[in-house]
């Protein structure tokens, strides 16, 4: 392998044994419990799972914006051309993390109406990030802001620059949020449910926009979602998350063609498919996600799993099993097929 190819495959971000705990009145909540993944330069990793599984806490921990009640341990290693740093060890309010947050790692939030301040114009808020990270020249900052509004498909950008968030439609606000996130040419874009509040047509437009801008800027993307259709369209690799743990991880093609974990299989069976029986009922995963407070060492999916093994799945922690070089599953059904960890 050439050094150039090796560099292309090198991870931009490595999350190692990330745990996020929250002390509640009735016990300790392990909201994120030993998460590991890597994001390679220029690639897209999808983090998929039901609401409450810890996806957003995991993504926000990367740029240290979780509430102070969240106690995080582990390592989040950021490998840039100019520096290698453990983001989790930095002061959340310190100068070093602020030089990375927004500049090298940017984030698109689920609902831009709450992410934008209603008190300032869209242009003012995009310019603020540019003035902090790229240039102190206000004319240059405005030029960059107008250019970014144009790149994300907002027409009449001079007029829109001076408008307030409430004057934008939902799709336009999401485009403006993307323009603000990309205004400083980040190496990693974190997109937390970027299309949840949008209708299907606008969702498709936003996804196409993100793919085009990724190709133009060469950035990596961490896409947080519960929508497997978006995962199939956007991602190179997928990490399936349940109850604070990654239960399966592989390439998109492998996950869709050869799912292993009962939860992953349930998610895929619940998806409507083109060409399927119109009268067939979609399957659902029975039960609800338990609250991870004072959880004993056992499989978190045990109560909902049709393939559970009594006396094993409910009595001990589930090891990781490496099915192949690029396919990991956390399930006792496959514990003998690979090297457990």
From TrEMBL:
<dbReference type="InterPro" id="IPR013563">
    <property type="entry name" value="Oligopep_ABC_C"/>
</dbReference>
<dbReference type="InterPro" id="IPR003593">
    <property type="entry name" value="AAA+_ATPase"/>
</dbReference>
<keyword id="KW-0547">Nucleotide-binding</keyword>
<dbReference type="InterPro" id="IPR017871">
    <property type="entry name" value="ABC_transporter-like_CS"/>
</dbReference>
<protein>
    <submittedName>
        <fullName>ABC transporter ATP-binding protein</fullName>
    </submittedName>
</protein>
<comment type="similarity">
    <text>Belongs to the ABC transporter superfamily.</text>
</comment>
<keyword id="KW-0067">ATP-binding</keyword>
<keyword id="KW-1278">Translocase</keyword>
<keyword id="KW-0997">Cell inner membrane</keyword>
<dbReference type="InterPro" id="IPR003439">
    <property type="entry name" value="ABC_transporter-like_ATP-bd"/>
</dbReference>
<keyword id="KW-0813">Transport</keyword>
<dbReference type="Pfam" id="PF00005">
    <property type="entry name" value="ABC_tran"/>
</dbReference>
<feature type="domain" description="ABC transporter">
    <location>
        <begin position="13"/>
        <end position="268"/>
    </location>
</feature>
<dbReference type="GO" id="GO:0005524">
    <property type="term" value="F:ATP binding"/>
</dbReference>
<keyword id="KW-1003">Cell membrane</keyword>
<dbReference type="InterPro" id="IPR050388">
    <property type="entry name" value="ABC_Ni/Peptide_Import"/>
</dbReference>
<dbReference type="GO" id="GO:0016887">
    <property type="term" value="F:ATP hydrolysis activity"/>
</dbReference>
<dbReference type="InterPro" id="IPR027417">
    <property type="entry name" value="P-loop_NTPase"/>
</dbReference>
<dbReference type="GO" id="GO:0005886">
    <property type="term" value="C:plasma membrane"/>
</dbReference>
<dbReference type="GO" id="GO:0015833">
    <property type="term" value="P:peptide transport"/>
</dbReference>
<dbReference type="Pfam" id="PF08352">
    <property type="entry name" value="oligo_HPY"/>
</dbReference>
<keyword id="KW-0472">Membrane</keyword>
